[in-house]
Design goal:
Number of strands: 5
Number of helices: 3
CATH architecture: 3-Layer(aba) Sandwich
Protein name: Phosphoglycerate mutase, putative
Distance between the termini: 29 Å
Strand order of the largest sheet: 2-3-1-4-5
InterPro entries: His_Pase_superF_clade-1 (IPR013078), His_PPase_superfam (IPR029033), PGM_Phosphatase (IPR050275)
Mean pLDDT: 79
Pfam family, one: His_Phos_1
CATH superfamily: Phosphoglycerate mutase-like
Largest sheet: 5 strands, mixed
Organism: Ricinus communis (Castor bean)
Family: Belongs to the phosphoglycerate mutase family.
Oligomer: single chain
Length: 148
């Protein structure tokens, strides 16, 4: 992990069912991709092998102009599209003494910058502001909890 100066991890907490993104999931993926495209350049996008994570990663990579061959992977900023267990492990590695601060929500942005060779910190946790642009926050996570 020492190659990365920061990792942005996003979560899909639907478990291990290998299903494609539904319409809500595609809207969420487009929203997070738009937000990430507005921020600093992305060197690489990685994902789990489950369909919905791969589809989200492809949407992000396309919107952020990340080359498929990894030619821009200078070890700066990478996106990891993964599931709750991995995000929890990142949190535990970055802050071993801290409790996990709440539920990990779909397409939440969690930023773990490197602080030295082997140390991560937590810069951002559970940020889902990008979902307000698609009207999703009015009904989810306390409403009818639709997810993608």
């Amino acid at each position: 992990m020492a190659l990365f100066s920061g990792i942005v991890a996003m979560d899909y907490t639907e478990g291990h069912m290998d299903v494609e993104l539904n319409d809500v999931g595609r809207q969420q993926a487009m929203a997070v991709a738009g937000r990430l495209a507005e921020e600093s350049e992305i060197s690489a996008v990685y994902s789990s092998d489950l369909k919905r994570a791969r589809q989200t990663a492809q949407i992000i990579a396309s919107r952020c102009n990340v080359p498929e061959d990894g030619s821009r992977n200078s070890g700066q900023r990478v996106i990891v599209v993964t599931h709750g267990g991995v995000v929890r492990a990142f949190h535990k590695y970055a802050a071993p003494a801290e409790e996990l601060p709440g539920k990990i929500k779909n397409t939440s942005i969690n930023i773990f910058p490197m602080a030295g060779e082997d140390k991560w910190t937590i810069k951002t946790w559970g940020d889902i502001r990008h979902l307000s642009n698609i009207g999703f926050l009015e009904t989810a996570f306390g409403g009818n909890t639709n997810s993608g």
